Amino acid sequence: MTWRHRAGSFALHASGYTRYVAEYDLRVGADADLSWAAAVVERCCHEAGLRITLRDTLAAYPGCVHWHLKYGKEKGTLEVTLWPAQRRAWFKVATNRDGPWIAAAIERLKPCIESALR
After folding, report:
1. What is the per-residue pLDDT across 6-46, written as a single tens digit (0 to 9) for each?
2. Which pTM does this prediction carry?
3. What burial class does residue 65 get, using C-beta atoms within 10 Å of its C-beta: 0-12 exposed, 13-18 middle, 19+ buried?
4. Which residues pair with residue 7 across a beta bridge?
5. pLDDT higher than 60, residue 93
6. Total domain count for the chain?
7. Is residue 9 one of the residues assigned to a domain?
8. Has residue 6 been placed in a domain?
9. Is residue 1 part of a domain?
10. Among 34, 42, 103, 106, which residue has the fewest nearby CB atoms (within 10 Å)?
11. Is the pLDDT of residue 5 over 50?
12. Residue 19: exposed, middle, or buried by beta-carbon count in 10 A (0-12, 13-18, 19+)?
C-alpha cells in the first residue's frame, strides 16, 4: 500500500500542533455509474466490520459524500470520501486519528470499493 502525501497535507490543529494527513486514492473507472456508489461504500464498510460514525459532505468538495469509520472500540478513525463530480474516491488518515487497525481495514475495503467503481 502506498500512501500519497498531498501538498498542503500539514494542517494546524486547534491544539497548536501540526498534524500530518495521509491520503490513499481509490481507482474510479472512467465509465463507472456512480449513482449508487455511496451505497456500495457503506455495504463494503459493513462487510469489513466497520462502524460508520459520520456521513456528511465537505464544503471543499461540493457534492461529495464523506464518512468517518471506526473499528469497535479501537483507537483511530479512517475517513473515506467519494466525489462523483470529479470521479474521485480516497481514504484519509490524520496522524492524531491513526490506529493499529486502519492499514488492514484499507486492505479489506480497497478491493470491495474499487470493484464497484470500475
Report:
1. 444 444 445 555 556 899 999 999 999 999 999 999 999 99
2. 0.84
3. buried
4. none
5. yes
6. 1
7. no
8. no
9. no
10. 103
11. no
12. middle
